[in-house]
Amino acid sequence: MKKNFLFFALIVFMLGLVGCGGGSQTPIEEEDKDITGITLVDKEVTYDGSEHTLSIKGTLPKGVTVSYTNNVQTNVGSYNVTATLSGEGYKSKTLSSTLVIKNRVITGISFNDKEVTYDGNLHHINITGTPPEGVSVTYKSGTMGVTNEYSEVGNYVVTATLSGFAYDTLVLTAKLVILPFGGQSFTGITFENKTVAYDGLAHKIEITGNLPEGTSVVYSSTTAGITNEATEAGTYDVTVTISKEGYQPLTLQAVLTITENETQTFDNITFEDESIEYDSFEHEILVEGVLPEGTTVLYTSNVDGISNKASEVGIYNITVTLSKSGYETLELQAKLEIKAVDKERYIFVDGENIYFNNPLDEENLYVYGLEGLELVNRDEAKFIVGHNGIMYYVSRGLISTSIKSFSGDTAQTAFTANAEYLVSDGTFLYYAVNPLFGDAGIYKLNLDGEEPSVVKVYSGKAKYLTIVGSDIYFANGNDDYKLHKISTTSVDGTSTQVLDLKVKEIINYNGSLYFTVNNLLGDYLARLIISSNTLVKLSSDNAKYLVVAGGYIYYSNVDIINSTVYGKGLYRVPLNLLVDNQSSGELVFETAYNISSLKAQDDSTILFYRLEDKHLVSYDVTNKTLTDIMDDFVPTDNPSMQLLSKFESFVWGNRVYYINNYVDGALFYYDTKTNENIRVTSNGVKSFSIIGDYLYFNQISYLVNNDTYMINLRQGGLPLEISSNDARDMILYNSFLYYVKENVAGVGTAITRLSLDGSFTEVDVYEYNAHHLTIQDGKLYFIKGAGVDEIWRADISANGDLTNIVRLGADKTDWFILGGEYLYYRDSGLIRMNLDGSNIEKIISKYDPISFFAKDGFIYFTNDTLLGPKDGIYRANLDGTNIELLFENTSGNGFGIEMHKVNNYLYFYSRSGSNGDGHFYRLNLTTLQSELIN
């Protein structure tokens, strides 16, 4: 009874602290230092067949290292090179610059005009000079089938093109003139090149000069269907042949060029690399920025069958091509990397049951046993240990961390502590606490009494606890994590250094400690025989996740050199070596991306996770057989919705903009023509509005600071910061933006107006929390308060102030709309009243419209009632008649809020909570079928 009373009192006390904003202050963490004085400068070189690189300038601080990406290049091109600076105690910093390798230039070549007299023979013109090795020359003329030689009288334009690998193409032009021999000549005739801009009209080139009567003039071109006239943009080689009896024929050439109209460019569009840990789900990278309406977006990659989405471990080079009439096509490249990341997970064997973290289901606790694979609970169980026949583990939460017990059915909180490295000696549980600041130490927990009791054994940071007899061995953070021990009976005692070596991964077996020595010249696996204090080097491997089974120490070899030479995977060495072994251990099972988090199931069976697919597997080292415990597990595409999700959406043209709470609250739009989702912002958006062609949005810009921005959606470009205030419910009237200003706690404090005349002056016009701001006919309507409250109205004066603030009726509501001469609001049904608050009447009863809007002569609303009409989305006439069910809520996706109608579709969020999933949907108003958008 005492235990229950004290537990209840503790809960009440903690709730009081939360409600009052009280409680102890979390110690301020010391921030890592910035890395300064280092630059990475652009470089431009000419191709020479050698490798070229960029290098940082400046002196790196001690302990800071640099790693380059995309830095060694030989071939011609422009390469984005990144240098990542990192080191303990410093903020990681990434520098980017461009390495440009240019083509070589062809020199020493000329192509000269030539003039000869007609003699019936072929005459030609060639380049002079010797082309560089690997450069070839091709000739072309304006006459079909002719390169650089002619026999007939005329003026001929010949082009010589020189090209070769890593050379700029050189194009030279010369003229071959064959003069007539005998007979009269045509004189004073010219045929000139002509360049015009495309305008949809036909353009042509003609000879100028006087011709004798009876002269024949014939135009031809190398372009099919074209003589000397064309309409479309392009380059047309035109030949004119002039002839008359008694005259030498004259052939002339000229070029008609029709240029494209001046094109626009896609501006402020980014396509960034993304690196993601493997989780079995598809991931994609999308262009970010505001695209002009009608833009075509095409994704491709260097991997067959992949566009911009992938799920398997690997590196995918993605290309996006943006195109639109009147715009220069833009091609961008980015890299999607899905990594096999090593993370410690926890496994516990209890008879036939194997308990483990499932990395393919948010690290939740699962069990594999006689009934197959089953979810146990939603805890990420860490540091699992058996204690007196019961499984104990550490469960981390948002505001606290607890030690929980699990006896096979349900988990119960045994004790609240920020515990790590949980171990048991059969009588007590021991754990370490390692905060950045504060009361670090090793603690002993007694769970046998009426209520838990805890004793501090040691003060200081500690890792890798293991118990041998009456001593706790650990890596001591107060002594550079060297091996120490302390008696289990100590009370805030002093530890003893066992070895003057930094250690990790400590376990004990049969009178010996096994651990990895953290050595500057290379980590290695070692054994300490406790009775004689003898240290034996077991292997040269950097061993991780040590377990004992059948006379061996098994481990994951994370040594970069050894695993590269011998292979990654499961290694072992004999337990009882008495002399140093300078070699690597025995590779028992090889994998592509290594393994993690080992556990011995018995003397011949080792459990571990494969990094490439995060599956828990069982390996029989005797029979050399592998069993995939998660082979039948199919993860569901069910990512977690972000905390404090926001539900706002607006329509602009063919786009429906919405906050995607499954992608960090970033702003997206759904293109109703192409059925594509486009990411608009990289950061989370707290609130936004679209008014005319302008998008106003409030996003996190630095740490937890929210600023407000605006951008013209039609023109694109960069967003402009217009306020450092945390703004929501933004609306526009004349040249003022009105919004509700929130404080640091997220509570509205005032209605504020912001001048959009360029001064961005801000004035609080009504110092009270409000929401649902709506403007019509120079009046501001709003709900006074944070949630369910009364509707108020104010006049907007010429200077933007609010006057004549009055309440409309006495009912309280959380949702209203304006429709023509009426105001509609929710209150035990749907109520309609005049805009001055008179003539209140209920037009829809028996329904609870949690969200509604009016368009095209109808009211669309969502019903949520315990009894009566079905829950779902409905449509009715504006007077509340002819109610019809459009979409019944049967699986949590029919509780629509933030609804919009675009063409023949209804777009909506499914309300979060027990009656919805927070996803964004659309409903076909003809077929009445819904589909998921995000």
Description:
The radius of gyration is 39 Å and the shape is flat. The protein contains 2 helices and 78 strands. The protein folds into 7 domains: 39-102, Immunoglobulin-like (Sandwich), CATH 2.60.40.10; 114-259, Immunoglobulin-like; 274-339, no CATH class; 539-638, Neuraminidase; 647-719, Beta Barrel (Thrombin, subunit H), CATH 2.40.10; 725-810, Beta Barrel (Thrombin, subunit H), CATH 2.40.10; 815-934, 6 Propeller (Neuraminidase), CATH 2.120.10. It starts with a helix and ends with a strand. 3% of the residues lie in helices and 52% in strands. The protein has a 7-stranded antiparallel beta sheet, with no helix packed on it. A 7-stranded antiparallel beta sheet has the order 52-53-54-55-56-57-58, with no helix packed on it. By secondary structure, the protein is mainly beta. A hairpin with a 6-residue loop joins β35 (441-446) and β36 (453-459).
Put simply, the count of helices is 2
Low-confidence stretches: 1-28
Annotation, overall tally of beta strands: 78
Mean pLDDT: 87
Structural class: mainly beta
Q: In what range is the share of β-strand residues?
A: over 45%
Q: Write the CATH homologous superfamily of the largest domain.
A: Immunoglobulins
CATH topology of the largest domain: Immunoglobulin-like
As a whole number of angstroms, the C-alpha radius of gyration is: 39 Å
Give the % helix.
under 10%
**How would a textbook summarize the main sheet?**
7 strands, antiparallel
Proper CATH architecture of the largest domain: Sandwich
What spatial order of strands do you see in the largest sheet?
37-38-39-40-41-42-43
Overall number of domains = 7
Task: Give the N-terminus to C-terminus distance in angstroms.
Answer: 50 Å
Oligomer: single chain
